Structure prediction request, 138 residues.
Amino acid sequence: MSRLHENYRGSNKELYIEYTTVAAILSTLEITVYNEIVAYKENVQLAIKLLEETWESYLSKVKELSPNLSHDERLDVLAAQGVTENTLVTIPILEIKNMNISVDHIYQEFQTLMKQVKDGVREVQKLDFQTSKMFLDY
Prediction:
């Protein structure tokens, strides 16, 4: 028996188990990343809702505290303190949505990378099985 044959790392069964383990790890990673993306998007939607609710709460509270002022006067008082719908809601929501677009892009890149890794693993697996077959024929 040649030295190369003695050092070869496994039978078809061992290779199958090895590559099945790799596939399971990759699948687990994909599921984990996907779940994190879903959770992030849910948090984004919650943050947007909370920003909108906070603005409505501010308006309601200001109305209670200043019943003699008109709606526009109340908005002017808030604006004088730097509190506007634009600063509390519109701009933060746009920033959050931009981050969301970045996350979508990163996830697409991750999926592309995972496909490349899986394709590479399948190619190495095919070569390993061919090599293993050569040793069986040897």
